[in-house]
Amino acid sequence: MGAPHPTQDVAIARPAAPPADPATALQDHPSPQTEHPAAALADAQARLDAAPGDDDAFRALIFALADLGASALAAEHLAQRPHLFADHERERLEGDAIARRIGWARIPAAPDTPRLAASRAALDALETLQANAPRQTRWERTRLQIDALDALNHLQRHQEVVDGYTHLVEAGIDVPAYILPAVGDSLLALRRPEDAVAVLETALRHRPDDVNTRILLAYAWLESERFDLALPAFQAIADSQPAWPRRTDAETGYENWDRFDADLNLALAHSYANDHAQAERLLASHLGIGPGNTALQTAFGAVQSRRSRPAAALERYRMALTRDPESRDALAGQVDALTALDRIGAARDALTHLQRLHPEDPRTPRVARSLERHRGPQLALTYARGRNSAPGQNTAASPLGSRDGGRRLEARSSLIADRWRVGVVAGDDWADFEDGRIRHRGTGVGGWYRHDRLSAAATVSRIDDRSRHGSTAWTAEADWRFSDAWRGGVRVARQDPEASLQARRAGVTADSLGVSARWTPHDLVTVGASAARLRYDDGNRRDQFALDARRRLLTRPHLWVDALGSTYASRGSLGEQATYFNPERDVSAQAGLGIEHIVWRRYETALRQRLELTAGPYRQRGFGTALVPAIGYRHRWQRESGSLEYGVAWSRPVYDGVREHRVVVDAALHWGGAP
Questions:
Q1: Per-residue pLDDT, 24
Q2: Range with lowest mean pLDDT among 163-167, 630-634, 657-661
């Protein structure tokens, strides 16, 4: 039931905060030299060449370097004659050099340079300046605190960013707008989107055309589940950015990378809103232009993952990593794709690589927890109880009796050698008939294997029921993934628990052999087929065939509607000679709608509700045709560690021409991942 959370950490995150621009702050302290800095620099250098001791020329040289953007060089030269400068001049020039260094640290480093080394060095220099030369000017002291937030944001030390910002606000300091995007980004990284909205809206009041800040604000709305604000905002950003703007009198336009960022994030926003098909179309049009773009390939991989194509997603992540081996989004997506493909050893290696390269990224621990949950123990508990009644009849003709129920436990160990699990299974199915209650109770052990394309399982249980006290039942099954779209499986069972409980009342059990296939070309369509033969002890051979299909009709951020269809046909060799319900031939078809709504969601925690309405004809040889309606309603509480699901269903089945009412309530608890 349901689709993955649209803002979960799958493969790609929102863009990093833009580098802080201290230009606004610097306007309050203009340098003495403001006109023609290049000419001023040449003049000052000439004067110094003629008279190296000329203090006025030295000051002019320093200010000219600062005006040209060479802040580090200006600060380096200033250290030769610091006494020539007032405190506020010296501190401003030193602060300019630190700010420039922090900004340049965001530029990708050379291949052999350790990641984030420049940002760490810039922050170390800032902290050394604070410790060894405390600022005498209040603004410059504050400015260092503010610029430190930018470096901390780039280093992914988001809690320190928010703590530093909060301290400044509580101290009554009017925090400059240029640092607010970095603060907003850190709030988003800490999963505080509502607080991020307030900060980013303030930043945009000062710089309404800043594309990166607008994108961050749209993500803050999205992560607050305000898709009504987020999607139009992403579209407006893209519409406001021409792909090839042209300056006045220019012969050609120039590349507008803001438009690329806007288009990329518009596509991802559609994907987060569950419209993965639209996201794929938007990204595919860009892939034809820039197939070597790392961010584009990573985003396309994320969408493929959400479209139920993990192998295709892995291919895209690896294409991205050939261009940028340190891409954190591609590395994180690679772990998720390998996990979905049941290549757990490779996923662990990929996680180790991600942790080594990006230990500071807040998404890295979440990726690690997801993999550990998949590798850890698993538990499933299910319970169901039904009631069947036939108006005007003394007893129900249902093969499930007047009342029925069942409960099952399946507990599996953590992964052994990344492929195997062992565990216990237990089940208790019962039905009330005229002559009493029939039970099928069993406890046993099982083993499960999953790796890459193959999954297999086997269980052995001791059965305790009235018909065969102390007998043994077993099941064996295997499943093969042919591609992202196709899977096929086979199952063999001795004393199949799915066989008729009504037959067990007469001491008749059944073995079974079944095959199945499923086709899922993408997230909007699923078609499954199964065929089985049950071989009863009394010589009856019952053949069953089923086909089910789902097609998405409507997709909205918190609502989707599916068209549902199914058919079923069976035949029994003994027909009415059997002592239990055994149609000689019967066939049914059902069509309807499945409506799912997200009532509430906060990242991985969500409450969903689903309503299913179906109806269709059922025909049994010798008893004619009747319309069988059904309604089902259920809730699903989902958390990172597991889920709780419960619901109620009503239907009006027909058995041997007798119309009955059936009501079923059920519940299921899954912990550590669904077995």
A1: 40
A2: 657-661
Helix residue spans in 155-192 (DSSP H): 158-170, 180-189
**What is the C-alpha separation between 488 and 486, in angstroms, rounded?**
7
The two three-digit tokens of residue 122, written as one number: 């810039």
What would the mean pLDDT of 57-80 be, rounded to a whole number?
89
**How far apart, in whole angstroms, are the C-alpha atoms of residue 530 and residue 545?**
6
Within 10 angstroms of residue 421's Cβ, the number of other Cβ atoms is 20
The Cα 482–Cα 394 span in angstroms is 52
- Which pTM was predicted? 0.89
Whether 474 and 493 have beta carbons less than 8 Å apart is answered as yes
Record the tokens describing residue 227, joined without a space.
């898709």
According to DSSP, residue 179 is labeled: G
Q: How many percent of the chain have pLDDT more than 70? A: 92
Report CA Rg, the chain. Answer: 34
Could you give the 3-state DSSP secondary structure of residue 554?
strand
- What letter does residue 15 receive in the DSSP assignment? P
241 phi, psi to nearest 5 deg: -115, 105
Q: Report the distance separating Cα 444 and Cα 467, nearest Å.
A: 19
**What pLDDT shows up at residue 20?**
61
CA 192/CA 300 separation, integer angstroms = 27
**Which segments of 579-620 are extended strands (E)?**
585-602, 605-620
Give pLDDT tens digits for 125-182: 999 988 988 988 888 889 999 999 999 999 999 999 999 999 999 999 989 999 999 9
d(CA 299, CA 281): 12
* Contact present, 74 and 37 (Cβ < 8 Å): no
> What is the identity of the amino acid at 496?
D
- CA-nearest of 137, 128, 37, 133 to 86 is 137
537: how many CB neighbours lie within 10 A of its CB? 16
Q: How many CB atoms lie within 10 A of CB 205?
A: 10
DSSP line for 115-154: TTHHHHHHHHHHHHHHHHS--SSHHHHHHHHHHHHHHHHH
Q: Which segments of 458-572 does DSSP mark as H helices, in order?
A: 501-505
Question: Which whole-number Å values give the CA distances from 281 to 42, 270, 553, 556, in the listed order?
Answer: 55, 11, 18, 17
> Does 8 score more than 50 pLDDT?
no
Sort 598 into a burial class: Cβ within 10 Å, 0-12 / 13-18 / 19+.
buried
The angle that helices 257-272 and 211-223 make with each other, rounded to 10 degrees, is 10
Q: Chain-wide mean pLDDT for the chain?
A: 90
Q: Where are the alpha helices (DSSP H) in 240-275?
A: 257-272
